[in-house]
Amino acid sequence: MRLQIDGVRVEDVRPGSKTRLKGKILYIDTCDLERALLSDKRIKSVKIDLVRPGSSVRIVNVIDVVQPRCKTEPEGTDFPGWLGKLNVAGNGRAVCLEGIVVTICNRFSHRSYSAILDMSGWGSELSKYGKMPHVVLDPEPVEHVSEREFELAAREAGLRAAVYLAAAGSSKRRTGTEIFDLKPALGRKGKLPRVGYCYMLYTPQHDYQGISDPIFYGGQVTEILPTIVHPNEILDGALVNALTVRGMETYSIQNHAVIKELYKRHGRDLVFAGMIVYAATMEPLRRQRNAMIAASLASNVLKADGMVLTKCYGGMPHVDEALVAEACENMGIKTTMFVHLVHSGSSLANSALFSSPKLDAIINVGQALERIVLPKAEKILGGNPDTPIYNPDVNQTAGSAGLDVEQFLLAGLHDHLGSSRIVAVDY
Amino acid sequence: MMSNELRVVHYVNQFFGQQGGEDMAGMQFVVKEGPVGPGIALERILGARGKVVATLICGDNYFAENIDRAADEGAGLIADFKPDVFLAGPAFEAGRYGMACGAVSKAVACRFGIPAITGMAEENPGVELYRHDVYIVRTQRSALKVTENLAAMVNLAMKILSRDEQSRLVTREAIGRPSEDGYFAQGVIKNEYTRKTAAERGIDMLLAKLGGGHFETELPLPVQSDLKPAPPIEKPLSRCEIALVSDGGLVPKSNPHGMRGRGNLVWAAYELDTFLPNDFSSDDYSIAHTGYYPVYVLEDPNRMVPADIMRDLEREGVIGKLHPFFYSTSGNGTVRNRCWEMGTEIVKNLQQRGVDGVILTST
Questions:
Q1: Is the CB of A427 less than 8 angstroms away from the CB of B206?
Q2: Which residue in B49, B60, B66, B48 sits closest to B92, CA to CA?
Q3: CATH homologous superfamily of B6-181
Q4: Which of A5, A221, B100, B128 has its CA 20 to 30 A from that of A276?
């Protein structure tokens, strides 16, 4: 498995008569893009907006943020299971437009919350997406398409747009190249520790309408047993975000911080021994079974000395993750877990949902529910000024002055996969 | 007064308010314009930054007779002064004074949304009661360093009122950690910016752990006391009274006890026959719990609170009696110590009513 990502730096997006990259500006023929997206018969129309950082715009009903990527080798294998035919991701070459993103809104979903994104003011400074130009997609369903079906259509439209845009960069000179290849780690005298990564992909506890979101090669993961997946597959489109933003947008997955950091240190400080994926569960027996199998894979297949574990959004998944970590520790594998806090009151010690003396190396990625008050935005995309924005105590809308939101709703602020520079501390 | 000078209102007791000693501890509220007693030093410390526009004085005993009422009364008396900041005491180790400072500061903070800061010694009972609601600067037991203490209180106030782009806090509050700014920890968790990404920190930490090096966890875990399970019920089940308890957040439609879907702190007892009769209607319920998809429980609450089956078992004589009350709470992001308290409170109720066993259902 060898993945080469050819990065092409883009600094601005502008409307144009033809979609092409000229220097660092991506000109987009939005009619042509819409036509490409309308190949999905569930979609009636797509409003496409090109937004620059600094404009007083608030994007609401955000369900995902995607980095434009397009496989150049083998061609036509983008986001397998969604767009292209089923093909193992993680091999070959892809072009990546760095510095811009596709943001998909779904104003027709009735889920309890969806994310927002500010393009100016404090909100834009907090989010890693706030300083990038956005191609914002706001699709509308054809009559009689169910809410659930349209969520899938919107998700696919985002992926399709990401590929369409990146294709404009495929013949351009790359501004940077990343190569992901787990060559045997050579060099250095003395044994390097083997470090593996255990990746919790999903939790079914919030399943909307009781249906799990498909995320892995176009399929659901709630019933999978812990299994080995090559980290390149994650970087190359095998995995996408669920159908709502929960601190793990597709962009974060494409740029998976823990995987990239392990790669960076491979051969230097450690041997990246491989990756296990699994899903959290609400069934106690399955949870224990998952922990046992994951630890066994870590020990017997990855032969790991240490494991890094991350989780997805939710309180219950801490328990799943802790059981996996404990099972690993019991097999002599040292672990570091990534957690987050789901409330603001009391102290850190009072917040843990598990307790075990061996789980003594924990990273916390922040307190998801801390509130911030964002300034009024002049223009709303993906919704309108009356679109309600979730707050546990007050009713408020997108056009409100002083929008009081919990931080997890601001896309690009928190990241379960490790890219954020935040920690929650006792005060 | 200059328009950007802070308007400070200062609270002191009868002694520091120069009204008298213990003999005047029963005096009611008095408001004086300008600074009194330590307020003079306070105004000197403020300098160009502000003025003590009024001093609120009250007797420690009068306040202690009915703390909440007095706090409200005191807060009401200062409204006309339009304070930007409220400072109380410091009370050092004086218990009644400390309680009064804490209570009136909390009332002012709630009513006016302004920073309310006081100062106490660690031994003061007011610390534990009020540190969550009010900034309490740590002082010594005696009034020896009162000027320093007042300066620390003023500094804290200035910090709270400012927003700092360079602040290490995501919320941009300019406040420092409790140990840095000399106040008692408030029992809140705030997000700080870090130099390294979580991924970098995580792998650093794991490598340190693998190499036997030093590392510090970012989440200290609670020390779990060894909780022994209760022994089996000795009485035959056919003579036992069994109660239903749940933390799944099932409540009447209007949620009369205001249970929160996240971070809930209350529980309630509902009479089972009226709350969940056999001929229930789904429209009569709400779920105060955002941690699961509630549709199946709303369709039939018996799925989570199995009253129907329990009634059958009672009728068949398998159990002696179904306890007439259902104990409901919502456990989603509720802090551990409050969970413990709620459990203890519910158990006390159950024991008083002679319940022998509990079926505890979750989600």
A1: no
A2: B60
A3: Response regulator (3.40.50.2300)
A4: A5
